[in-house]
Amino acid sequence: MIAGMEPSVDAVARYSFRVWSYKQGEMVSLLIHLGDRLGLYRALDSLGTTTASELAAATGLHERWVLEWLRGNAAAEVVVSADGVRFELPPEARPVLVDDAGSLTFAAAAFDAPFDATMVDDIADAFRTGIGLPYDRHGPRGAHRTERLLGPWTRFALVPRIIPALADVAGKLTSGARVADIGCGAGVALTALAEAYPASTFDGYDLSRHALDRAAARVAAIGLDNVALHHERAEQVPSGAGYDLVLTFDCIHDMTRPADAIAAVRAAIADDGTWLIKDVRSSGSWELDRNNPLLAMIYGFSITSCMSSAMSEPGGAGLGTLGFSTAVAERMVRDAGFSRFAVHDFDDPANLYYEVRP
């Protein structure tokens, strides 16, 4: 504070409200997590206008707890109530909080349980050591959350819209192509493509054992015989593999050695192959990114997950959630020997898509 300049009472009050609003956001996040986890939003959507007693009966939960949850949601304007007795979801809530199978705007899965104290201790320690937490430090629920968030996008955009927009790719997949999904996670995109294009073969690579366990379960449940999973780093993708299509979805910015991973893709892709990158929209400019009303949340995700993973080894690049901007992406892939770089905007509010070719 500048010496001799005391803040006004009103300025302190406004600043205090802003700070406390972030604490309120933390509490509302917990309410949303519980509503998703306990099936409360789904039941509320089915019942229409209802009371705590009726919702408790429908879910098998304790009425007093349900009432407090409903009133908290109504106070946050997530649920509608005029009297604190009868409650309903507004119609716009269904695609955001209920329809995890059919909505591209489904968001409830992002509201995970709060971090346990030991994880917060580890994050704080990373500020001292510079070494972050690997992805699997989040445990199985980290893979599960990512899987649920990616599911709707994959079902409704990847196969019907995005693949056809790439030059010559759909035809190759129909005839029989070799595909690598690097950073495949729980295999949502991998299995969607493998189902849609049975003549092609698919290799999924991931460093996360938790994610690969979920991917293996998904492959087995669908009964796919054209998918192989590999517990390998991106840099270990075999050189000379001749992949016709390589996918990296939301993972380059998480990697400790993204330049090595990009070089590995260049060595593994066929001369006429295509690399499809999906990554977070980022201008690379603080001034422009400030226009994003969710910017603070994105930096929070970076500290707890993306940048943390990208710094989880000594010498990690530490790109973080916003570090792989379009300009950085183009520079890095061209430095690795790729000659063509095209940007696609498929109206995904969080991501851009880059079509890269040797």
Topology:
Layout: H1 9-37, H2 40-47, E1 50-51, H3 52-59, H4 63-75, E2 86-87, H5 93-98, H6 117-129, H7 140-165, H8 169-175, E3 178-182, H9 188-196, E4 201-205, H10 209-222, E5 227-230, E6 243-249, H11 258-268, E7 269-280, H12 286-289, H13 295-310, H14 326-335, E8 340-344, E9 351-357
Parallel strand pairs: 3-4, 3-6, 4-5, 6-7
Antiparallel strand pairs: 1-2, 7-9, 8-9
Structural commentary:
This protein has 358 residues and is an alpha/beta fold. The chain folds into two domains: 9-100, Winged helix-like DNA-binding domain superfamily/Winged helix DNA-binding domain (Arc Repressor Mutant, subunit A); 117-357, Rossmann fold. The chain has 14 helices and nine strands. It has a seven-stranded mixed β-sheet with strand order 5-4-3-6-7-9-8, with helices on both faces. Strands 1-2 form a two-stranded antiparallel ribbon. Helix 2 (40-47) crosses helix 3, helix 3 (52-59) crosses helix 4 and helix 7 (140-165) packs across helix 9. The longest helix is centred in the first third of the chain and has 29 residues, at 9-37.
Descriptors for this entry?
single chain; 358 residues; alpha/beta; Arc Repressor Mutant, subunit A; Rossmann fold; 2 domains; seven-stranded mixed sheet; two-stranded antiparallel ribbon; 14 helices; 9 strands; 49% helix; globular
